[in-house]
Design brief:
Length: 188
Amino acid sequence: MEKIQLQILRLVPSYSNSNVFILMLGEVNGNRKLPIIIGEHEARSIALELEGITFIRPLTHELLKNVAESFGITLTEVLIDDFKDGIFYSKLFFTDKSAEKVIDARTSDAVAVALKYNAPIYTTIDVLNVAGAVFQESEAENTEEEKNTAQETSMEDLQQQLKEAEEKEEYEKASKIMQEIENRKKKK
């Protein structure tokens, strides 16, 4: 099985559902991306780790790491190995230097734990072929027509377009619409 390393590109809130976030993972040496819908608590854990924020007392994912390390167990990698019915499936690969154990995990938790361990995140070519997509890399790549159309659209229409993009799981489009909404809010 060919594994492809991923990196976290961004974590953005859903404008249509305040309890949902979109975690965008991308190929380290490529341009395909995996948009993953995750819950509020997992998003918070990932965001705290990305920002380097720590607490005096351990949170859940840090507690898991502390328990494992106290027994000489370390996380070697995370593998997002399946995608069925709109759900990503992941495995945590732990080792205690003598044996490897593979543990099933929700993808959001697997990514949060990988961040705690600074462990690599991988997926398979099959998952990328089924759930991955190639998106434009920046706003600069938008055509002038797309930019002008976005600027002429009302805030209400933008909110509706955002909701529709999220429902259709067009996350890069949703991200661009969110950026336009944020830009307009800053101008006010």
